[in-house]
Amino acid sequence: MQKILGRLFGGSCFLCRGAAGALLCAACDADLPRLAGPRCPRCALDSPRGEVCGRCLSDAPRYDATVAVLAYEFPADALVHALKFRGELALAGLLGNILLQGIDALSVDRVVPVPLSAERLRARGYNQAVEIARAVMPSKLDSALCVRSRDTPAQMDLPDAERRRNVRGAFRCTRDLAGQSIAVVDDVMTTGATLNEVAAALKAAGAARVVNWVVARTFPQS
Ligand SMILES: [Zn+2]
Ligand SMILES: [Zn+2]
Predict the structure, then answer these.
(1) How many angstroms separate the CA atoms of 81 and 17, rounded?
(2) pTM of the prediction?
(3) 8: CA distance to ligand 1 center in Å?
(4) Among 221, 216, 170, 209, CA closest to 193
(5) What is the average per-residue pLDDT within 36-63?
(6) For residue 10, is pLDDT > 90?
(7) Smallest-distance ligand from the CA of 41
(8) 209 CA to middle of ligand 1, Å?
(9) Which residues surround ligand 2, an ion (CB under 5 A)?
């Protein structure tokens, strides 16, 4: 593996181009904005005592828990962006490994990546969530379990308030999941609207518990 990475990246750090034995040098790795401190177990936003936050109490999401390992700020955003839009697929292994440090991979029955629309998958050639999920837990990866039942405009192009409506009913499950515990993997969680709809589809198929495993979390401006 090191040999392959060395060939791809010439033994230099993806971020600072300094000498590195892996994708990132030790200094850049240490600089990653890892999330620390108490968070809401349900949505992974800050919560002073690590209790379920007010938002989740007043408007409970369909997912049961969220684990996010990085804040979506520099340089985590640069890594996610390069994986998503520049085809730097080796970064999926790096981000998947960081995610693995925050989750209990044995606690779920299946791992499901957030699906892309067929159209976007054709244009991009890969789904970054599948690539990250593959790095996290290949033996439980089930990329055909959840599909987009209709195409939707990209969430990132929409204001927060419209995101929920945009993805409502956009996903469906292809199998019965009675009593199962499912992890949903994505690169970035912003409003959680997409993950909420995926969870709704999984629960409609019988899933008992749905947890989100996301590499990076954005935080609402308040
Ligand atoms: Zn570096
Ligand atoms: Zn919350």
Answers:
(1) 17
(2) 0.91
(3) 15
(4) 170
(5) 95
(6) no
(7) 2
(8) 38
(9) 40, 42-43, 53, 56
Cα 217 from chain centroid (whole Å): 9
Angle made by CA atoms 42, 50, 70, in degrees to the nearest 5 = 70
| CA of residue 35 to ligand 1 center, whole Å | 20
Question: 42 alpha carbon to ligand 1 midpoint, in Å?
Answer: 33
Specify whether the CB–CB gap between 90 and 8 falls below 8 A.
yes
Residue that has been written with the tokens 């520049």 in this structure: 86
Instruction: Give the number of whichever ligand sits closest to the CA of residue 25.
Output: 1
Interval 161-182: pLDDT, tens = 788 888 888 899 999 999 999 9
Q: Ligand 2 centroid vs 205 CA: distance in angstroms?
A: 24
The 3-state secondary structure of 24-85, one letter per residue: CCHHHHHHCCECCCCECCCCCCECCCCCCCHHHHHCCCCCCEEEEEEECCCCHHHHHHHHHH
- CA atoms of 155 and 137, how far apart (whole Å): 26
Q: Tell me which of 222 and 114 has the higher pLDDT.
A: 114
> How is residue 208 written in tokens?
């008992």
